[in-house]
Specification:
Strand order of the largest sheet: 1-6-7-5
Low-confidence stretches: 292-332
Distance between the termini: 47 Å
Order of helices and strands: HEHEEEEEEEHHHHEEEHH
Number of strands: 11
Helix content: 25-40%
Shape: elongated
Radius of gyration: 27 Å
């Protein structure tokens, strides 16, 4: 799923290769699920003949500023992507459209030809993206509802620490809330929590100041680095969790086991050896494990008796073991 670095890479590519040029032709797919709130004919008419002045982004949304409104906006969803013919635009992990596909792709939702012959396309194979035509994108939903951009508007560390102290929700759920910070998705949330050594289910308000500061630093460093390399995952540091978190398969990162849980409704990769629940949450987990251990012992004690031939001996042996187990439990 494209997140802030992937969308920023698309924005920069459009900014570099398409701004200052006029739209000479435009073709919009007949897909009302993706093309939202405007007909294909009206969107084509609104774009034709306009000059692209800038490509703008907030969080995971991108829009084009033309020489007059309205402006097209692109919410990338799970597989939205920008392709420019003849230009290498970094593709994110699990990109749905391959270089071997026809041009323009059959999954193209908006295809544009510029007055110098350059062509670009917004594609979406899975159809969770949204393309809209808005008079002032920043003043209306969904962009107006976004929180501060994680790259351009990350709150100062002191404000971040204070803000987390008031949040009674799991930290990963908070990071994924685009109204709180915009641009962080599943892989970035997993990465920054791993690097900050914070369990994804840890309640935000229970984090120490040092943990909050570490998380703030990791958010800034991970996003800035990913943007610097145009979201090219082959250039991400080899020690990042990113390289080992895909597919829900058991594996290791830096010699430590990766496990998967559900956090905020998303499959979440984390490293139990580093990312431990703390405070009351840790105590609750410990109590739960103790209960499970006792339950397992009770189940063992209720197993069927041994064979008839050895019944007397095995019954006596079982009683001795049960007695010792009870004594161990009492000591615990």
């Amino acid at each position: 799923m494209p997140e802030l670095p992937e969308v920023e890479a698309a924005r920069r590519a459009i900014e570099e290769h398409c701004t200052g040029k006029k739209i000479a032709a435009c073709s919009v797919a007949d897909d009302p699920k993706v093309i939202e709130g405007v007909s294909r004919a009206d969107l084509e008419a609104a774009l034709f003949g306009k000059t692209i002045l800038a490509a703008l982004r907030k969080g995971k949304s991108l829009w084009l500023r033309l020489d007059s409104p309205p402006f097209p906006t692109f919410q990338f969803g799970m597989a939205g992507a920008v392709y420019i013919k003849g230009v290498a635009v970094t593709k994110y992990k699990r990109s749905a459209v391959s270089d071997a596909d026809e041009w323009p792709s059959k999954h193209s939702k908006v295809f544009i030809e510029l007055d110098d012959g350059l062509e670009f396309s917004f594609t979406d194979k899975r159809r969770f993206a949204r393309v809209r035509l808005l008079e002032d994108p920043e003043s209306v939903p969904p962009i107006s509802e976004l929180g501060p951009d994680a790259l351009l508007q990350l709150m100062p560390v002191g404000d971040f620490v204070e803000s987390l102290s008031k949040k009674r929700t799991a930290i990963k759920a908070l990071l994924l809330d685009q109204r709180y910070i915009s641009g962080i998705g599943n892989w970035i949330a997993d990465e920054v929590l791993y690097q900050a050594k914070i369990h994804p289910l840890q309640i935000a308000s229970s984090l120490s100041k040092e943990c909050c500061k570490s998380l703030h630093r990791c958010i800034r460093e991970v996003i800035e680095y990913a943007v610097e390399v145009d979201a090219d995952s082959n250039r991400f540091p080899i020690e990042w969790l990113f390289h080992f978190r895909w597919g829900k398969r058991s594996g290791e990162v830096n010699g430590m086991k990766i496990e998967f849980i559900t956090a905020a409704g998303r499959t979440s990769a984390y490293v139990p050896e580093l990312q431990k629940l703390t405070g009351k949450q840790s105590e609750e987990v410990s109590r739960k494990k103790s209960t499970e251990v006792l339950s397992d012992k009770n189940v063992d004690a209720e197993e069927p008796p041994p064979s008839e031939k050895e019944e007397a001996y095995e019954t006596s042996k079982k009683n001795r073991i049960s007695s010792k187990g009870w004594q161990r439990n009492m000591v615990q």
